[in-house]
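Q: I'm writing a short explainer about 4-hydroxy-3-methylbut-2-en-1-yl diphosphate synthase (flavodoxin) for a general audience and would like to include a description of its predicted shape. Could you first generate the structure from this sequence?
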Amino acid sequence: MSSSNVPSPRRKSVGVKVGPVMIGGGAPIVVQSMTNTDTANELATVQQVEQLALAGSELVRITVNTKEAAQAVPGIRARLDDIGCHVPLVGDFHFNGHKLLTAYPDCAQALAKYRINPGNVGHGKKRDEQFSILIEMACKYDKPVRIGVNWGSLDPEMLARIMDENARSSDPLGASQVMHKALITSALESAAKAEEIGLGRDHIVLSCKVSGVQDLIAVYGELAEQCEYALHLGLTEAGMGSKGIVASTAALSVLLFRGIGDTIRISLTPEPGGDRAREVIVAQEILQTMGLRAFVPLVASCPGCGRTSSTYFQELAESIQLYVREQMIVWREQYEGVENMSLAVMGCVVNGPGESKHADIGISLPGSGETPVAPVFVDGQKTVTLKGDHIADEFRAIVDEYVRTKYRKKTAHA
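A: Of course. Here's the predicted structure. Afterward I'll give you a sentence or two in plain language.
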């Protein structure tokens, strides 16, 4: 097999502990997300953090932009702990973070990590002073920091300096290359400044977010070569629905295949009233389909064709996929390795039996215009044929029995 078809080894990075979660240092790639509630509304924020954590978000970022938000953070942390949700909280600071962390020490302590944007901490002398305060607070409370550079808010003085240097160069860079250089320079210079102030490399995560897929790949490729800091991946303003999912998947898959990235977030714009946890599911599915982590049993299903004009197999595939994701909340607490289970729900006899045999558990429906008669395959062997009106319930029962008998029960810890 050509080496180009094999994923690169994970890039070596300095590990950063965020509460009990390790980013980088060879640890599994971490999935994170962010609330869109008003953080001052403790109850709404607690509910969304819990929703994101139950979906599988291993870190959850919350906006801390006002004194009311800062005052609410300790209560949010306490409420989450009371309901048994111990996911680490990351505070997202812009413009006034130096003031809020100084004025509200309980907030500074309750957060597991701070996220700051060097382009939004002030200008000139104030920038250096306010950035220093943020890092000093991180040192004081022993908190890691993500230095998150964004192409929409680059430090104008730093950008002007790089543009001037480029203009004087005998071989000037193009506009996009200048932007890439500015992003990387901002991140690395800010990290160096943080280290000068006293923040260790094991407390620094970097990100350089852009909205363009090709730009993101280029920037992180260069950044990865120039440092050993842990890296956070994600498109900024990825978009809504399929556009955001496709763009994020295209960009992150290339970088992950190259071994780049220690934690990811999929920044999807939710539809009005949409489920915020969708971005967590997309992040998990990217990592799982890339073979980098396993989160929930994968359900393979055919796209359908003229042989499957009945919606029966579509409804069954959807119900099984929802079922295993919901059940994983319970299964992951009780059994080891269930996330590696594979399922197949096939619509007709063309590829159905073969695909079903390849899965741990598979069901092959007969296609359209026929009474549902569906053979079930377990570990490659046909075990039963389901008929009638309760095929879905009976298939779920087979899945439950497989989990109970095939996966080792976790032992309770004292």
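A: For your explainer, you could say: The first helix runs from residue 42 to 55.
Q: Perfect, that's easy to follow.
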